[in-house]
Structure formats: C-alpha cells, structure tokens
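User: We ran a pulldown and think these components assemble together. Before we commit to crystallization trials, I'd like a predicted model of the whole complex to look at. Sequences follow.
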Amino acid sequence: MAFLQLDALSKAFGPHKAVDGLTLGVEKGEFVSLLGPSGCGKTTTLQMIAGFVEPSGGAIRLEGKDLLAVKPAKRGLGIVFQSYALFPHMSVAENVAFGLEMQGVAKAERAKRVAETLGLVGLGAFAARFPRQLSGGQQQRVALARALVIRPQILLLDEPLSNLDAKLREEMQIELRQIQRTVGTTTILVTHDQAEAMALSDRIVVMNQGRAEQIAPPHEAYERPATPFVANFLGKTNLIDGKAVRPERIEFASSGLAGTVRTRIFQGNHWLYQVETASGLLTVIRQNAGGTMPEEGASVHLAWAAP
Amino acid sequence: MSKNGPIALIYHTLFVIFMLAPIVVVCWVAFTPEGFLSFPTTDWSLRWFRAIARYPEFISAFWQSLGLGALSSALAVGFSVPAALAIARHRFRGREAFTALFMSPLMIPYIVLGIAFLRFFTEIGLSGSFTGLVLAHIIVVFPFALRLTLASAIGLDRSIEHAAVSLGASEWTVLKRVTLPLVVPGLASGWALAFINSFDEVTMTVFIAGPGTATLPVRMFLYIQDNIDPLVTSVSACVIAITVAGLVALDRAYGLERLLVGRGHDGR
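Assistant: Here's a predicted model for the assembly, 575 residues in total across the polymer chains.
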C-alpha cells in the first residue's frame, strides 16, 4: 500500500457529487498535483485529507492507518492556503513558531528551527516583520515556512501561487520545486494551472466532475492523454479524424493536408498559426528559428507524424 | 488624492456646521453670567460651572451613567461574541428568527420598553435597582454590539483558523490565540457604540431609574422640567469636554482608526 492511500473517496453536497470515487496512491517523497477546472473536486479532496470536510464515503490511509479517525489538529499535515492565511496579528517569527509551540517544542529549539526554516525560504532577515509589511511573494514563503517547520508528513498546497503575478509565479515554481526536493516532504498540490502542475509534479491527477480522468507523469499525460478532456486541458490540441495532434507537432511541408493561413501571431520564441483546412481550423505552433514564415493568406501544406 | 470641487467643498462645510453648531451653541451658552439661557451672550463667566459643585447629584449621576454604560456594554459585547460567531458561520434552524430577535430592541419604541420594564421589575422586585438598569440596558444596546461584532466575524477568513488547526491548535486555543484577537477591533467599536447608546438613553431609563440610581441624562431631564437656568448647559459642556479628552487620549494611545476600523491589523 502507498504512503498515502485514497480509496473510493467521495463527497456529496446534497445531490451534487463533488468528489466521486477517487482512488489514488501517493508514494513517500512524491509530488502529486490535483489538476482540473474549478468545481472539479480537487479542493474538496484536499480539504478531506486535511480534515476540514468529512467524506461521504471511502477511506484515507496514511502509512496504513485510518486518517479519518484522527482529528484535523492531530493529523500533522502542513497546509499552505491560497489566501496564505497568515496570522495578521503575529510577526513572521511568531507565525512560523506557532505550530512548534502547539507541539510543545522548547523555546530554544523553537527559535533555532524557526531561523532554519526562514533561512530555507530566504526570509531570514524578515523575522520581526508583520505579514502586512511583506509582499505577496514573501507572505507566500512565510506560509510555506510555517507549514514546513512542523516537519509535516504531507505538505498540502491549495492553489498557493495563483495570487502572484506571472513572473513571480514562475520564480516561485522553481523555488518550490527546489525546496520540496531539499526537504523531501510528500506534497500534494491543488491547481487549475496546467503549466504549474506539469512544471512541479512527479505525477498529475487530471480531475473532471469529481473523477480522475488520468493519473500519470506530466510528460506521459501530455503525450498520451487518456481522454479528450485531458488532451484539451493539458495545453492546446487539434482533433483531426478523431485523433489528438499537438499544434507543435504539425509542420509546414511541400505536400500534405492543404490549407490557407487565417491568422499568424508572433509570440517571441514561437509563431502561432490558425490554418483553414478540409479537416477544420487547425492550430499550428512553430519555433521561431529566425527564418521567413508563411504569411496570412498564404497557401500551405501541413504534415505531422501519426500520434 | 483628488481635490474637491467648490460645490462639494461648500456642501461639506455646511454639513460640518450643521453637525457642530448645536455643540458650539451649548458650550457658548454655558459661559453666560445670566440666570437664564441667553444667546449670544456678551459677557463671560464661570458662574454655572461653579454651580455644578452645589449639585452633587449631577456628579454622582455622571458616575452612575459611566458605570452603567461600561458594565452593560461589556456584558452585551460578551454575549454578542458567541451569537455573532454562530450567526456568521453556521446555517441552523431558526437562524433568521434569532437574528431578528436580537435586533428587535431597535424596533420597539423605547417608551414602550420603559413601561414594560417598569411593570416587569416591579413584579420581580428589581424596580429602581442598579441590577434592573443593567439588565434593561444590556437588552437595549445589544443590537449595536451584535451588529459590529457580526461584521468582524463575517469578515474573518476561515482559512486562518483552519491554518491554526492544521498546526495542531485545539478549538479553545484557536479561539483564544487567533479568532478573538482578530475580532478585537469589532468588539472595541461594538463596545463604544453600545456605551454611547447606554450613556445617552433617557426615554426608557426615566421609567426604571430610582432616586438613587438616576443616570445623568435622567437627572438633567428632570432638572429642566423645574428650572430654566443654564446649569444643564454647563453640565453638557463638561460632558463634551470629557468626551473629547477621552477620544484624544485613546487616539494617542492606540489610534482610533486601528481600534474602531481595524486598519492597523491586516492592512487591507
């Protein structure tokens, strides 16, 4: 049995099934993302693991023991919330020390571990500040430090980066990945951002309407999507004769499917094309290699290797 | 910051004058040397301030009002916390009915409440007692305390409490270390509003206060029924001065905005 095992986990709110028989095993040290559109049940799943929502059916086991029998306060999980949920009336150091204080860790040991963890997230100099004096990215790191300092068995991340701007989000993704590798904590990330899930995870669980559509490593899910939903959710895709073909796999060739370029958009490192063909409007992405590319209105031929 | 246009500026000025004029007139008249209410007065005198000393019942009534207001507001705020948390967080049967019940003292004319309390307290032997006054005032000021406590309970981010729970805090610890500190601005402003209403209340209190428990407004009300001299204006001026001094001291010590609006807490 896996380190963390969800068995046919379900949650119904009245007639609406938010989570519908989700089975998932997470190995120790693994980084798993629950990915899906809003309302797919990913946050409800996280809250059931955390203990804030009671399942209507199924089981959750941690190292073989029934986690549902354990009170939320005794589960020993670290959680980072979308709103960060820092204690606004406590300093950064007090925020991080809170969990240790609850565990009854002695004062000297507490101070040492708080300093260590703040160092880990690069906020060693901010211990005396209050949350309102920090930027969004810094608050995010405090929330992460506060969750990590108690050495949780599992780290739960609920859309932790969605309140940050795009550039900072990318930096934090890299940092989060590095920190998780350093401390080796088993991590479950809830996100609606497919790029974030693919960048961070060992495996992703693509969820739709309370069910797992596919559980696979990111590369595999992208290359061999199990369902049309997964294909569409994980990046752009063309459906040609019932087969999913990624836009970057289609080339301009001297022969092949004939078409006319409807629009051409330059995006720096690549060109994004919409090409009108007998199989419908296809999206084509070509790397910007510096050469000349077909213009709008040009007649082109498209070719791709069978997926 | 954008600047106000001339019309807005005139409007604001008139509004401030409208708000402050009665206070200014009362304070002005208090300094008259005449034996009646004369305005505008041409001479200045402290005659009517010295006169307060000859009426110790005004001073004892002031302390009576202060104690009554502080105690009944504190108890009302204390009762409002569990009520506000329950109403803000839980959907239970009779939730709307409870909310309406808690707010109902606002809708009943105070004169009706006064007569009802008089009858009720006479029945149970609390007529004219301080305990009776406190009970009646708790009920009257409770809606004000609840409104503000409720506002801060609704504004509280549940995930902050969830975070504390996930870090191992018991329910009691969450309440003590996280929930209560975060609603303190709401409690403080609820208490202040309740206190002002209690201190101010005369319509109901005049029925239930006894000779030994008369509050300041009741004492003043009874005085102007028999006298036309400016003594009540000098008493009023003293209350206004004490209020202003109190507000300034509070602002210096804690910052009024932080205490009443809670701006200093989360910066949002």
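Chain A has two domains: 4-229, 237-303. That may be worth checking against your pulldown data before setting up trials.

User: Thanks, that helps.
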